[in-house]
Amino acid sequence: MAQTITLRRAAPSDLGGVDRLLMRSYPRLLAADYPPSTLVLAVPRFARAQPELLASGRYFVAEDAQGRILAAGGWSRQSPSGRAVAETTGHVRHVATDPDAVRQGLGRMVMERVMQEAREAEVRWLDCLSTRTAVPFYRSLKFRAMNAQELVLGPGIAFPVMRMVADLTRT
After folding, report:
1. pLDDT confidence of residue 85
2. Consecutive 10-residue runs of the chain (171 residues): their mean pLDDT?
3. Residue 78 pLDDT
4. What are phi and psi of 102, to 5 degrees?
5. CA 113 to CA 65: how far, in whole Å?
6. Does residue 153 contact residue 46 with C-beta atoms inside 8 Å?
7. How far apart are CA 82 and CA 85, in angstroms?
């Protein structure tokens, strides 16, 4: 029997559910591509739901019939560092899938909605700071790898990522 999944806009009341998803997802799914020493320092810094993102109307959750959040993600006009950029550019934010639900199309469902909504808001480019683990996923959505970067999360805490970009006029 197929599982019923609902994709909806996140609400501030989803904070706990998204926190649980991020803390389940990131440590397990990133373990193959990052050393434990990096994950133990970095994951607690970015595996937290962001209340302003949940309230923005640009963040989505995919949940099962029991209301358990299995995937989430969104976009913003500001970069992850909070800088405003060109009106034609959006930024992919906090995409995650439950490790027990990967390869079921949930992350793709969330990202297709993110891309559709960004297009409707007249965003031409979606910029993404992808984990090493997620690079193939974003490539499958027609994102192009631009350059490797280090996301500075605090003094002495750098997390390697790949900057990726999608031209929404062509996807």
Report:
1. 67
2. 85 97 96 94 92 96 96 90 76 96 96 97 96 97 96 90 95 73
3. 82
4. -70, 160
5. 20
6. yes
7. 9
The pLDDT of residue 98 is 97
Helix (H) or strand (E) holding 146: strand 144-154
Q: Report DSSP letters for 45-71, one per residue.
A: HH-S--HHHHTTT-EEEEEETT--EEE
Report yes or no: 133 and 33 within 8 Å, Cβ to Cβ.
yes
C-alpha dist (Å) from residue 76 to 18, 33, 72, 114, 121: 17, 26, 14, 10, 11
Assigned token pair, 110: 């969330």
Tell me the whole-structure pTM to 2 decimals: 0.92
pLDDT recorded at residue 10: 98
Closest CA to 74 of 131, 17, 8: 8
Task: Name the strands in the sheet holding 125-130, side by side, starting at the edge strand that comes first in the sequence.
Answer: 5-9, 59-64, 69-76, 89-97, 125-130, 157-167, 144-154
Q: How many other CB atoms are found less than 10 A from the CB of residue 14?
A: 23
Task: Give the burial string for 25-63 (b: 16+ CB within 10 Å, else e).
Answer: bbbebbeeebeeeebeebbeeebebbeebbebebbbbbb
Q: Give 89's strand partners.
A: 125
Model pLDDT, residue 71: 98
